[in-house]
Design a protein that fits this description.
The complex is a heterotrimer. By secondary structure, chain A is mainly alpha-helical. Chain A is built from 15 helices and no strands. In chain A, helix 5 packs antiparallel against helix 11. By secondary structure, chain B is mainly alpha-helical. Classes of the chains: A mainly alpha, B mainly alpha, C alpha/beta.
Chain lengths: 319, 295, 678
C-alpha cells in the first residue's frame, strides 16, 4: 500500500522533472536569451555582457539547469528580466488570483454539473434531458471569448448590473475582486459544467442500465434509495478525474477569459511575459502550473483508488 | 460462386457507407454534417461570391448598420462585414484542416507503436507525454509563435505537434484494448509478421477511435486557432478571420453589435457542427465520447 | 386445488423494431406455479425465458412492452400495482436469484450492507439483530466464516461465493416464491452441483415455490418437479420433469435432448439443423416448422394451439403422437477410436509454464524460486489422428497449455515436439513456416477471435495467402471450398462476423484453422459459448473433419460429456498438474484419480434418476500448494501427511491409463467400488 503510494509519487516527481527539462531546453533552443530579449535585441557589447553576468548566463547549460532547478525546488525563481523583481512574489500574486477564480468556479460548477448530470442521466431522453444536453453542447463548444463577449454585452453594457472588466490590481486581497469576478466565474462555470455534466450523464446512464441496479430494483429497493446508495457512488467515480483535469485547466488555460475581463491571473501573465520575452517568468509559471497539474491528477487517481473498492484491492495486491 | 468485382467493391466500402448512414440517421449527425459541409463548401467558393473586396476600407461608411447594400453592416474601417464573415473561416479551416490529420496520424502511430512496444520505452514515453500535457496550451503555442511568427507555415506544424500529443495516449489505450483480443493472438499464432498484424488486425479497429478523436481534435484546434487570433497571435490583419473580427468589433459592440454577431454565429455554428457530427459518429461506432475529457 | 402463486395468462411482450413495427419476444405465454411447486423453464438463448421470469415480477427490461395478457402474483395483478406495492413484494414474498451474481451485487457496498438492506426492507427482524441474522443467513447458504464475509466487497469473493451471497440475500426477505435466472451458469461443475443441492434443500425445508430458468436440462432435472420448454417466445411443451426429460412429445424438446452429449455413452449428439427465428421472424405457422422433421403444410399455414394431452402434458404440436418416434439418443455415430501407439503428432515433455514473470526486485535478490509454476511437469504424447481431451475446472491450466503449444506463451521449462521429432521453438515468432502451418488454434469465443472489421473472405484468405501464396481466382475458389467443408455456402464470403450467428462464426473460425491444412488442431473450449443444439453441430463438424483429414486434436473443455463425445484419450488436470491420463472409457470409469472422481460425480445429466455425488468441497484455490499432491487440500480420499509433502507417483493400470496418487490402484478400485455400491 505504502509502496504503491510512494511509487505513484515518484512517478509524479519524474514527470515534473521531465517538464522542467522540457521547459529549460525549450527556452534554451529559442533564439536569444533573457538578456537579448530584454535589451530589445540590438544590445551589444558591454551592456549585454553586464546583463549576462548579472543573470549568470555565461555558464554552461547543464550548470544553469541544475542551478535553476535547485533554486526552484526551494521556491526561488530568481528575478524577472525586465523589472528586476522577485519572480516568486510576482507569480505568487497571480497564482493567488487564479486560485480564487478557479475555486469560485469549482465551488459553483462542480455541484451544479453533478446535479444536472444526474438529472439528465436519470431522465434520459425526456424533455429536460434534451434541453439540458443541448444547452451543454452549446456551452461546451462556443468559444469562451464569444460567450464572455455576449455576457458583457448583456449584463454590463445593456443592463449595467455587473462590472464587465476587472480593475483591481493583482496584489489586492481576494475580497476586493468582488463583484468584478462574477462574470468571469459565470463564463468558466458554463464551460466546465457542460463537460462534467456530459460525463456524469453518460456514466449515470451506464450504471442505471447495469445488472446491480436491476437486481436492487428486483430486491424491492425504493427508486431513490437505488439512485443514492447503489448507483451514484459508482457513477460518480469517473467524475473525480474529470474534475481534476478541470482544475488544471482553470489554473493555466483560461488565458482568453482573463484577457477579456482583464483579470490579473496566471494566464494573462503568461501572455504578457511571453510578449515581453521575460523568459525567467515564463519558466517559473510553466513549472508551477505543471506541478499543480501533476499534483491534482495524482490526488484524483489516489482518491478514485480509495473510493473504489475494486481498485483498492487491486493495488493492495500489487503492494 | 459468381461474385463480380462490383460486388466486392461494394462490400469493401460498405462499412464506411453503413457508418455514414448511421451518422445521418441521428438528428445530431444530420444537423452536424450539414453544418460542416455547408462551411466547407462556403470556404471553397466564397472568394467567387463575395459582394465586396474584404480589405476595401471606406471612411464614410464606418460602423453602419445592416441594410440592403451591406447585409451585416460595416466595421470600424468601413469594410463589408458580410464579405468578411464569408471569408473569415478560410484561414482557420485551411490550417486546422491540414493540422488535424497530421496530428491524428503522428499521434496515432506513436500511440500504436508504444502500445505495442510496452516496457521501459513505453513508461518513459508516457511520462514525457504527461509532461507535455501538464503545460498550459497557450504557453506551448505562444512560445513558438512569438519566436517564429504567425504564418501558416508556423501554425500548422505547431498545432499538429501539440494536438497530436494527447492522441498518443488515446491510441495507446485503444491499442491495448485491441491487442488483448483473441483475433490478434490468432494472427500471431498463424505466424503473421508484426507489420501485417498492425496493418491488418490492429489498425482497422483502432481507426474507429482515431476517427472520433480526430473530429474532436479538429473542433478544439479551431477553438485554439480562433482564440489565438482573438488574442492577436493568429492571423495578421487585414486577412479576415472570425476570432480577429470579434476582437476588433468588441470595442464597438455597445452601439454596433452586428460586427460581433456575424463572426460569432459563423464560428459557433462550425464548431457545433463538428461536435454534433463527432457525437453521432461516436455513437454510430459504439464509442462513448462523453466519457472522455478534453485534455 | 389451491390457487396458483404465480399466474401468467396469455402474455405477449415485445419491442419496437427499427421501422416501428412490433417485434415479439414472448407470444401468448401461459404459466402457473402452485404453492411449493418448482417449475423449470428451459430454452436456448433468445427463447424469451428470462424475459418471462422477470415479467413474473412485474419487471420489463428497458424498451420492452407488455402487449397483452396479465401477470398475477397471489391473486393480484403485478403490472397494475403501484411502485411501493411492487417494492414490498419484490425481494419480499417474491425474490430473485440472478444470473452472474458477480455483476448483480453492487460493487461499492459491502456484503453485510447489502444483506442488511434486504432485511430492513423486507423482514420482521428488529434492527439490533440485523448482523446476527445476516450471519445466520450466510451460514445457511454454507459459506465458511460468515462474519468475515459480511465486511467483504463483492469482488473479493469467488463466483460460487457470490452466488451464495445472492441466495442469502434472497432468503433475507423470507420469500414465499423464488425466481432463479440461470443461477449456476458460468460456475465450475463442482460449484454448480453444490449450489443446486443447496437450492433443493432450501426449497424443501421452506416449502417455497420456485421458478428455475435455465438452458441446462441437467440442472433442471435436479431441481424441478415440472418443466416448461420454450422456443422462439412460445411455450411448446409443459409437463412433469419425468415426462419432459424421459419421453417428450414435442419435436423440439426431443431434438434438444438428443443434442446433449451424455457421460454414459461415447457417441456424437445430434444437431438441430437451422436456427431459431429472430424476434418478429415467426410466420403464421408453427415457429419450429422450418427445423422440424415432422412438419407438413399445415404446420406452416396455421399456428398450433397449446393442447392438453390425456397424459397431462400440454404441447403445441399437431403431431405430438408421432413425435415419440423421433430418436432421443445420440446420433449413434461413435467416433472411430484411434489408439495411442502410432507416431506422436505432439509430445509435451516435462512442460512447465508460468504466468508470473519474476519482478525486478525479485530478480535483483534472486528470489525466482518463490514462484510456483502455473503449469508444471506435463508429460503428454498425442498420436497422429488421435483426439486428446484436456479437462479440469477453471484455473486448471488447460487453456494455458494450448497457448504454449501455439507459441503464444513460452514455457519456462520442458519441450514441445511435433511429428518428425523436431522441437517447436518456444515463441511463435521463431517457428518455421512449416511448423506454423501444421499447428492451428481455435479459440473459445468467435466474437473475439474473428476480427470484426474483416469479411469472411478476408478472414479465410489470411492463412491461404500466408501458407500457400494463393491469390486471385485460386484464392477465391479455395475459400469457397473451405467454407463448403464447414457447411457454409459461398455467399457467406462477403459477410462480416457481426452478420453471422454464434454457430456460423465458430464454423468460420474452424474453417480458418483448416484452411492451413494442419496436422494438429488445438481446440480451446470451442463449444462453450454456443447453445447445445449448435454445439452438437460443431462437434459433428469437428469429427467429420478429423475423419476426412486425419487431423490430430487437442480438445480442451470444462464439460466432461463434451470431451467424452469426441476424445480417444483424456487427461485430467488440477492446478496445472496432471492427475490422470488414459483412454477415455478408462478415465471415465473406476479406478479414477480422486479428483476425476469428484468431477465425474458432479456432472449433471438431463435425467431425473441420476443424482450427482458431492465428494469434495467446492473451494476455489488460487494457486497450487508448494509441495506434495496438488489436490491435497480438497481430496476426499486424502491419506495423511504424505499427501502434503510428497508428489504422488504415477501408477499405471493398463493401456497407458495412469493415475497419479499415493493410493495404490487396488485401494482406489476397492474404495470406489464400495462407494458405488453404497
Amino acid at each position: 500500500m505504502l509502496r504503491m503510494l510512494l511509487r505513484r509519487m515518484a512517478l509524479g516527481a519524474i514527470t515534473v522533472a521531465i517538464v522542467s527539462i522540457i521547459i529549460f531546453s525549450g527556452v534554451e533552443l529559442l533564439p536569444g536569451d533573457a538578456c537579448t530579449a530584454f535589451l530589445e535585441r540590438e544590445a551589444k557589447g558591454k551592456l549585454l555582457e553586464n546583463c549576462r553576468e548579472a543573470q549568470g548566463l555565461n555558464r554552461g547549460p547543464f550548470e544553469r539547469y541544475f542551478d535553476w532547478a535547485a533554486s526552484a525546488i526551494r521556491g526561488d525563481f530568481g528575478v524577472s528580466a525586465n523589472g528586476q523583481k522577485s519572480i516568486a512574489e510576482l507569480v505568487g500574486n497571480r497564482l493567488k488570483n487564479s486560485l480564487l477564480l478557479a475555486s469560485s468556479s469549482l465551488a459553483l460548477g462542480v455541484p451544479l454539473a453533478i446535479l444536472l448530470g444526474v438529472i439528465t442521466g436519470l431522465w434520459r431522453d425526456r424533455p429536460i434531458d434534451l434541453t439540458l444536453s443541448t444547452i451543454a453542447i452549446f456551452a461546451m463548444t462556443i468559444p469562451e471569448f464569444v460567450s464572455a463577449t455576449v455576457l458583457i454585452l448583456l449584463f454590463s453594457v445593456w443592463l449595467g448590473w455587473l462590472p464587465g472588466i476587472v480593475l483591481t490590481p493583482a496584489h489586492a486581497p481576494a475580497v476586493e475582486f468582488f463583484p468584478e469576478i462574477i462574470l468571469p466565474v459565470i463564463v468558466l462555470t458554463m464551460v466546465m459544467t457542460a463537460h462534467i455534466l456530459r460525463m456524469v450523464r453518460s456514466s449515470v446512464i451506464e450504471v442505471m442500465a447495469g445488472d446491480y441496479v436491476q437486481m436492487a430494483t428486483l430486491k424491492g429497493v425504493p427508486y431513490w434509495r437505488i439512485v443514492f446508495r447503489h448507483a451514484l457512488p459508482n457513477a460518480l467515480l469517473p467524475a473525480i478525474n474529470v474534475v481534476a483535469l478541470t482544475v488544471a485547466w482553470l489554473l493555466g488555460g483560461v488565458v482568453v477569459i482573463e484577457v477579456v475581463f482583464n483579470y490579473p491571473g496566471l494566464g494573462r501573465m503568461i501572455i504578457d511575459s511571453i510578449s515581453d520575452r521575460d523568459l525567467p517568468v515564463v519558466q517559473a509559471i510553466a513549472l508551477i502550473v505543471a506541478t499543480v497539474y501533476v499534483g491534482v491528477n495524482l490526488s484524483a487517481d489516489l482518491l478514485t483508488m480509495f473510493a473504489n473498492p475494486r481498485l483498492r484491492t487491486l493495488y493492495m495486491r500489487q503492494k | 460462386m459468381t461474385l463480380t468485382t462490383a460486388d466486392r467493391k461494394y462490400t469493401m466500402f460498405s462499412p464506411v457507407l453503413t457508418v455514414l448512414r448511421d451518422v445521418l440517421a441521428r438528428p445530431s449527425g444530420a444537423i452536424g454534417l450539414t453544418l460542416v459541409t455547408a462551411h466547407l463548401v462556403l470556404a471553397l467558393i466564397s472568394p467567387l461570391i463575395v459582394p465586396y473586396d474584404f480589405k476595401a476600407t471606406n471612411s464614410s461608411m464606418m460602423l453602419t448598420g445592416p441594410d440592403m447594400a451591406h447585409w451585416l453592416g460595416t466595421d470600424h474601417m468601413g469594410r463589408d462585414v458580410f464579405t468578411r464573415v464569408l471569408l473569415g473561416g478560410r484561414e482557420a479551416l485551411l490550417v486546422t484542416g491540414i493540422a488535424t490529420p497530421i496530428a491524428v496520424t503522428w499521434g496515432g502511430f506513436m500511440g500504436i507503436f508504444f502500445g505495442l512496444a510496452g516496457g521501459r520505452i513505453d513508461e518513459v514515453m508516457m511520462r514525457i507525454v504527461d509532461a507535455f500535457l501538464s503545460l498550459p496550451w497557450i504557453l506551448k503555442m505562444l512560445v513558438l509563435i512569438v519566436t517564429f511568427g504567425t504564418g501558416v507555415e508556423v501554425l500548422i506544424p505547431t498545432l499538429a505537434f501539440f494536438y497530436g500529443i494527447p492522441v498518443i495516449r488515446i491510441a495507446r489505450a485503444a491499442t491495448h484494448d485491441v491487442i488483448a483480443r483473441d483475433f490478434v493472438s490468432a494472427a500471431r499464432a498463424r505466424g503473421h509478421g508484426r507489420m501485417t498484424i498492425i496493418w491488418r488486425e490492429l489498425l482497422p479497429n483502432v481507426l474507429d477511435t482515431l476517427m472520433v478523436e480526430g473530429a474532436m481534435r479538429w473542433s478544439w484546434m479551431l477553438l485554439a486557432f480562433s482564440s489565438l487570433s482573438f488574442l492577436g497571435f493568429g492571423v495578421s490583419p487585414p486577412t479576415p478571420d472570425w476570432g480577429l473580427m470579434i476582437a476588433d468589433a468588441r470595442g464597438f459592440m455597445s452601439f454596433a453589435p452586428w460586427g460581433v454577431l456575424g463572426p460569432v454565429v459563423a464560428l459557433s455554428s462550425l464548431i457545433i457542427g463538428i461536435n454534433l457530427t463527432a457525437d453521432a459518429l461516436a455513437k454510430a461506432l459504439g464509442i462513448d465520447r462523453a466519457q472522455k475529457a478534453p485534455v | 386445488m389451491t390457487q396458483p402463486v404465480i399466474d401468467i395468462k396469455d402474455v405477449s411482450i415485445g419491442f419496437d423494431g427499427k421501422s416501428g413495427e412490433t417485434l415479439h419476444v414472448l407470444r401468448n405465454v401461459d404459466m402457473s406455479v402452485s404453492e411449493g411447486e418448482s417449475l423449470g423453464i428451459v430454452g436456448e438463448s433468445g427463447s424469451g425465458k428470462s424475459t418471462l421470469a422477470l415479467a413474473a415480477m412485474g419487471y420489463l427490461k428497458r424498451g420492452l412492452r407488455l402487449l397483452d395478457g396479465s401477470v398475477s402474483f397471489r391473486g393480484e395483478d403485478m403490472f397494475s400495482r403501484s411502485g411501493p406495492e411492487l417494492e414490498k413484494i419484490r425481494g419480499g414474498e417474491l425474490a430473485l436469484i440472478p444470473q452472474n451474481s458477480g455483476q448483480s451485487l453492487t460493487p461499492t457496498l459491502r456484503i453485510g450492507a447489502q444483506i442488511i438492506e434486504a432485511l430492513r426492507l423486507h423482514s420482521s427482524v428488529p434492527p439490533a439483530e440485523y448482523s446476527t441474522k445476516a450471519i445466520e443467513l450466510l451460514s445457511q447458504v454454507r459459506l465458511p466464516e460468515p462474519e468475515a464475509i459480511l465486511s467483504r466487497f463483492p469482488h473479493e469473493l469467488s463466483g460460487g461465493q457470490q452466488q451464495r451471497v445472492a441466495i442469502a440475500m434472497a432468503l433475507a426477505g423470507e420469500p414465499h416464491t423464488l425466481l432463479l435466472d440461470e443461477p449456476t451458469t458460468g460456475l465450475d461443475v463442482t460449484t454448480q452441483a453444490h449450489i443446486l443441492e443447496l437450492l433443493r434443500d432450501i426449497a424443501r425445508e421452506r416449502s417455497m415455490a420456485m421458478v428455475y430458468v435455465s438452458h441446462d436440462l441437467g440442472a433442471i432435472a435436479r431441481v424441478c418437479d415440472r418443466v416448461m420448454v420454450m422456443y422462439a417466445g412460445e411455450v411448446v411443451l409443459d409437463g412433469t420433469t419425468r415426462q419432459v426429460l424421459k419421453a417428450p412429445v414435442h419435436p423440439y424438446a426431443r431434438g434438444l435432448l438428443a443434442s446433449i452429449p451424455r457421460l454414459a455413452d461415447r457417441q456424437l449428439p445430434v444437431a438441430l439443423d437451422g436456427r431459431p427465428p429472430a424476434p418478429g421472424g415467426v410466420g403464421v405457422g408453427c415457429s419450429f416448422a422450418d427445423r422440424c422433421a415432422l412438419s407438413e403444410d399445415r404446420c406452416r399455414a396455421e399456428r398450433p394451439e397449446l393442447t392438453t394431452l390425456p397424459t397431462g402434458e400440454q404441447v403445441r404440436c399437431y403431431f405430438a403422437d408421432r413425435a415419440l418416434e423421433l430418436s432421443l439418443r445420440g446420433s449413434g455415430v461413435e467416433p472411430a477410436v484411434v489408439r495411442a501407439d502410432g507416431e506422436a503428432a505432439l509430445s509435451l515433455n516435462t512442460l512447465s509454464i508460468s504466468y508470473q514473470q519474476p519482478g525486478l526486485l525479485d530478480r535483483v535478490f534472486g528470489r525466482d524460486a518463490a514462484i510456483v509454476a502455473t503449469v508444471d511437469d506435463i508429460q503428454i504424447s498425442v498420436a497422429r489422428g488421435e483426439t486428446l481431451g484436456l479437462v479440469g475446472e477453471s484455473g486448471s491450466g488447460k487453456s494455458t497449455i494450448l497457448k504454449s503449444v501455439a507459441g503464444l506463451l513460452p514455457p519456462v521449462g520442458g519441450t514441445i515436439t511435433v511429428a518428425g521429432g523436431t522441437p517447436l521453438a518456444p515463441m511463435v515468432e521463431r517457428r518455421s513456416a512449416d511448423h506454423l502451418r501444421r499447428v492451428q488454434l481455435i479459440f473459445q469465443n468467435p466474437d473475439d477471435s474473428l476480427n470484426p472489421r474483416h469479411t469472411v473472405a478476408e478472414i479465410l484468405s489470411q492463412p491461404l495467402k500466408l501458407y500457400f501464396g494463393l491469390s486471385g481466382e485460386a484464392l477465391e475458389r479455395r475459400s469457397a471450398e473451405i467454407l463448403d467443408r464447414v457447411r457454409l455456402g459461398a455467399h457467406y464470403l462477403d459477410r462480416l462476423p457481426s452478420q453471422l450467428s454464434g454457430g456460423e462464426k465458430q464454423r468460420v473460425a474452424i474453417a480458418r484453422a483448416f484452411a492451413a491444412d494442419p496436422d494438429l488442431v488445438l481446440c480451446d473450449e470451442v463449444t462453450s459459448a454456443l447453445d447445445v443444439s449448435v454445439q452438437a453441430a460443431v462437434l459433428d463438424l469437428l469429427n467429420e473433419l478429423k475423419e476426412t483429414q486425419g487431423t490430430t486434436y487437442v480438445f480442451v473443455s470444462h464439460d466432461l460429456a463434451v470431451v467424452k463425445a469426441l476424445s480417444d484419450r483424456v487427461a485430467v488436470l488440477y492446478q496445472g498438474r496432471l492427475c490422470e491420463i488414459g483412454p477415455s472409457e478408462q478415465v471415465y470409469s473406476a479406478p479414477s484419480h480422486p479428483y476425476s472422481e469428484v468431477l465425474l460425480g458432479a456432472v449433471l445429466e438431463p435425467d431425473p434418476d441420476v443424482a450427482p455425488v458431492l465428494a469434495a468441497d467446492d473451494v476455489v484455490e488460487s494457486s497450487p500448494p508448494a509441495a506434495g499432491c496438488p489436490f491435497q487440500r480438497r481430496c476426499p480420499r486424502k491419506i495423511g501427511a504424505i499427501c502434503d509433502t510428497d508428489m504422488p507417483p504415477w501408477q499405471e493400470t493398463n493401456n497407458g491409463h495412469a493415475i497419479r496418487c499415493h493410493h495404490t490402484i487396488a485401494t482406489l478400485t476397492q474404495l470406489q467400488e464400495e462407494d458405488a455400491r453404497a
